[in-house]
């Protein structure tokens, strides 16, 4: 699949990044990892899936993750789980719980793939688009310059976006956000695991806050919605 087909209407914005020396370095390094026997995740067809599922024309919200799950659950969308697997990651489970707290409902049919979010304009972007199997964070430094430049390029081209920055590693990228944007910050979802539920993510209310800031509110799930369906 060509890069143009992989990212859809993002291509004009991303093409200068794809042509950069930095991106060529990413491609070279990943080829080297594979040649040395490393298993790189997710599958190549899913590397840029966050862009394909949430097209530039529709993007309203950007949620930054760290890197893909390194155990095979990654589907190309940050925090999402491969829908064919029954196990739900701790971070995604806590996102689910935060939604329930935000909307004061019990959600029983949550979309673990997060595809419904992406298609409504939520860019679920990992700051590193690849990872070595079993090696969390292994490609963070490789992708960081690309992600920094992408965030600046995106925010110089479009105003009114809502950025959800969960945890210090996501909040590092705030300095690259330009223009008239909205930034919501909270603890990382996983922090609730080791804080005994006291990190503040469960009560951050980012989902209702985002819907108050954007033109077309997101239907976060069948029950967790401020949209008058």
Defining key terms:
single chain, 229 residues, alpha/beta, two-stranded antiparallel ribbon, 10 helices
Major β-sheet profile: 4 strands, parallel
What is the count of helical runs? 10
Average pLDDT number:
93
What is the overall silhouette? globular
Strand portion: 5-15%
Which strand order does the major sheet show? Answer: 3-2-5-6
What structural class do the secondary elements suggest?
Answer: alpha/beta
**SSE string, helix = H, strand = E?**
HHHEHEHHEEHEHEHH
Assembly type: single chain
What does this protein structure show overall?
By secondary structure, this protein is an alpha/beta fold. Helices cover 38% and strands 10% of the residues. It has 10 helices and 6 strands, in the order αααβαβααββαβαβαα. The chain has helices spanning 3-7, 11-18, 21-35, 49-53, 90-103, 115-119, 140-157, 168-171, 191-194, 206-213; strands at residues 40-41, 61-65, 122-126, 131-132, 162-166, 182-186. It has a 4-stranded parallel beta sheet. A two-stranded antiparallel sheet has the order 1-4. Helix 3 (21-35) runs antiparallel to helix 7. The N and C termini lie far apart (37 Å).
In short:
This protein has about 230 residues and is an alpha/beta fold. Helix content is about 40%, strand content about 10%. The longest helix has 18 residues.
């Amino acid at each position: 699949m060509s890069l143009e087909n992989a990212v859809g209407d993002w291509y004009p914005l991303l093409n200068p990044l794809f042509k950069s020396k930095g991106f060529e370095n990413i491609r070279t390094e990943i080829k080297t990892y594979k040649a040395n026997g490393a298993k790189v995740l997710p599958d190549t067809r899913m590397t840029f899936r966050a862009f394909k599922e949430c097209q530039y024309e529709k993007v309203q919200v950007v949620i930054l993750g760290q890197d893909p799950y390194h155990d095979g659950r990654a589907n190309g969308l940050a925090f999402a789980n491969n829908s064919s697997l029954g196990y739900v990651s701790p971070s995604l489970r806590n996102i689910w719980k935060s939604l329930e707290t935000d909307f004061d409902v019990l959600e029983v049919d949550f979309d673990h793939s997060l595809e419904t979010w992406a298609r409504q304009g939520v860019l679920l972007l990992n700051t590193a688009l690849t990872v070595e199997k079993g090696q969390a964070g292994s490609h963070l430094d490789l992708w960081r310059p690309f992600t920094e430049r992408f965030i600046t390029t995106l925010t110089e081209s479009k105003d009114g976006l809502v950025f959800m920055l969960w945890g210090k590693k996501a909040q590092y990228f705030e300095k690259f956000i330009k223009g008239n944007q909205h930034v919501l910050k909270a603890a990382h979802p996983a922090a609730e695991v080791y804080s005994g539920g006291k990190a503040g993510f469960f009560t951050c209310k980012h989902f209702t806050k985002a819907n108050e800031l954007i033109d077309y509110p997101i239907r976060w799930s069948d029950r967790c919605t401020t949209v008058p369906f």
